Amino acid sequence: MANVPWAEVCEKFQAALALSRVELHKNPEKEPYKSKYSARALLEEVKALLGPAPEDEDERPEADDGPGADDHALGLPAEVVEPEGPVGQLAVRLAVIEFHLGVNHIDTEELSAGEEHLVKCLRLLRRYRLSHDCISLCIQAQNNLGILWSEREEIETAQAYLESSEALYNQYMKEVGSPPLEPTECFLPEEEKLTEQERSKRFEKVYTHNLYYLAQVYQHLEMFEKAAHYCHSTLKRQLEHNAYHPIEWAINAATLSQFYINKLCFMEARHCLSAANVIFGQTGKISATEDSPEAEGEVPELYHQRKGEIARCWIKYCLTLMQNAQLSMQDNIGELDLDKQSELRALRKKELDEEESIRKKAVQFGTGELCDAISAVEEKVSYLRPLDFEEARELFLLGQHYVFEAKEFFQIDGYVTDHIEIVQDHSALFKVLAFFETDMERRCKMHKRRIAMLEPLTVDLNPQYYLLVNRQIQFEIAHAYYDMMDLKVAIADRLRDPDSHIVKKINNLNKSALKYYQLFLDSLRDPNKVFPEHIGEDVLRPAMLAKFRVARLYGKIITADPKKELENLATSLEHYKFIVDYCEKHPEAAQEIEAELELSKEMVSLLPTKMERFRTKMALT
Amino acid sequence: MSGASVKVAVRVRPFNSRETSKESKCIIQMQGNSTSIINPKNPKEAPKSFSFDYSYWSHTSPEDPCFASQNRVYNDIGKEMLLHAFEGYNVCIFAYGQTGAGKSYTMMGKQEESQAGIIPQLCEELFEKINDNCNEEMSYSVEVSYMEIYCERVRDLLNPKNKGNLRVREHPLLGPYVEDLSKLAVTSYTDIADLMDAGNKARTVAATNMNETSSRSHAVFTIVFTQKKHDNETNLSTEKVSKISLVDLAGSERADSTGAKGTRLKEGANINKSLTTLGKVISALAEVVSFILHYKGSCVYSANILGDILLLSVKVVLLWPFM
Fold it and tell me: What angle do CA A155, B216, A305 make, to 5 degrees?
């Protein structure tokens, strides 16, 4: 080493670090990397002062240092070797400099140079990878190489580096375990060296980032379950190391629950949502860490917004769980199948037996007090598919509770689209609850509630701006009236003497259903009120369904007047014919509504005969 | 997209000095309203032709009878837009093309004689018509706003000190709007020009962060034109409000995927270093699109605003200057 006091070398290094941390926008406008270049110069000076790298007995030509070419480079080392003596010490110091030079070049968009330095760093540490002095540096260098290769879109290479880091961490913790040296410490005087606690904190942070980078890699490789698992682990570690901002953590956990919901993993989803509730409740008690992105003034609004968003995640949980149950228990006309219900009841016992073993395998958040708090929330919510009305009702009530909470923030004035989606979810909750309800009058009331919450939306919204949403709502209202009508008909069928009152009710519901299906179909017309020759694929199925139901509705109008009856049958036939004709001209439409097309063809062949018989009967009387 | 009629115009500019010095060949030909492109690697191959509503040949100079001047472009496109605006309709013009393709020249033009672009000509005529009005029952007001959309952020270019990112809200009747976007009253084209200049300067300043480049942001300049008619007999007033939207779409530069210096797309397989992006990664996994829109901060908002401008415009013109 040259005759420069060690203290000076350290100072240079610290100065270089300080310059590296200067934010880019603080540099002159035309020289955003000025501070980085200055840092680089200082690092090069330190490197020169340290002298040449120690001779490497296993010296292999540079080309073999890529991750693919040399399996040993990334493989797990057989033993722990601590760098000792001046040779070891020099290797470590140089490695730290090479590391920082590597990161510096990457920050200034010079990837090749960055790669060179990082690879050199790893080569210097080759023998000492598992050591207390070098493990952190090694992992960080590999992580940075992983990120570098991802920028070159070589994801598998990135994966190799990052998985190697993960394996190294695990092996180190198993075989050594003590909090390792933080790389920059070798340029710090003895008295400034870090505490064990601080070293552990930083090392764990490095590993948390490692897991996070792997989550992203798996996502790009479309290994979604694995990616979710790693996100889950990242969240878990953030909690364990107190490195989180409650609002941000909570919304992340709630969002992750949606992934699990999509995969029908309700136990995991429930766990994420419960944790989200508990951690969100910590807001205000924990101070923000450096990982929190929100600005001071934004917190209050953000708090309410996130609260609303978490509520919406809960709504989806309740709704999906109920709908999943419906799917497994419905027959071919959408009613509850008692046999299927019994089967699932029998399955329930098995599900409960397996519960413990599933729970053990899942990633759990928190320990001790936190774990208890989360369990307290979990206990109030079922994760199993509801099998009867009572169980369904519990989920319904929970979902409804969150509907009200979500609407507090997502009011219609300001958040139209979000507000409407929440109302649609509320309507869906009623709809799925009706599936479990056995009493028909009560089912009717549920559909009535749906209509009551949806109808005002069609009045309040500007149809020009909210065309799509308006159509969805009209279609849903029409279907609700349609279902109500069918229920009233079933109720009337059971009565010995169906009176004129119920007949009137049935016809009114019919009329309302027709009104909304017609509104929906009219919305498809062009400005000249012409119905499209070719219906767009995004509205094809609903349009055909609407036509089909209109046909059926006309056939179900109850009237004593034979002339009117004939007229209705004619209109009904017209609509059935439209469907058959359109499907002939557009085969893709036939695929969308197979069942309805079959029925339409039947009606087209049967109705004319029925109408003819009707006419002759009328002529005779 | 009922009600809107969309017209597409393409325009080809003259070579710049660099292209001339390299003896570049022009591979574009125009005939009537169709444009054809020759394959430079295989000139014998039949050129590919495309029909547009307007194909503007501005590659040569005014001496060429086929040359499409700024006036010609304005007369075809601008005049009709103004007419529709006076009728109370919303109109919109999108300019799209690589940096250097000539969008600014077509939209803004130069201060020299007969080189004014669509916008100055449109504004001049707008104010001319207003000032020429003799009907005392009519009164007019013109306001402008200028915003920049860059993925998750909407910035008010006429009030750049408002550091905040403007929120896009939705009103049940008025539809989506940008909250707190400045709307400044103007009485002449000079006012408008000054505001556009100031706004443009605000755009460049925003791009000092090396991860953002102004060529990746969209700029939307809106003229809100209100016509009030006061009926002296009934003492009632009626109002017609039309919006003229001028959208400068982000430059369509292609990125060098090896990560070399220059314009670079930051999307793709890049790994994000900071844990602050954990939310984005989880959102992507959950595939929740419309739902956690605010959180994800996706570009859907910009699509929303742009889409709504499109939806509400009676006449939309797409200008595509060619290099």
Answer: 80
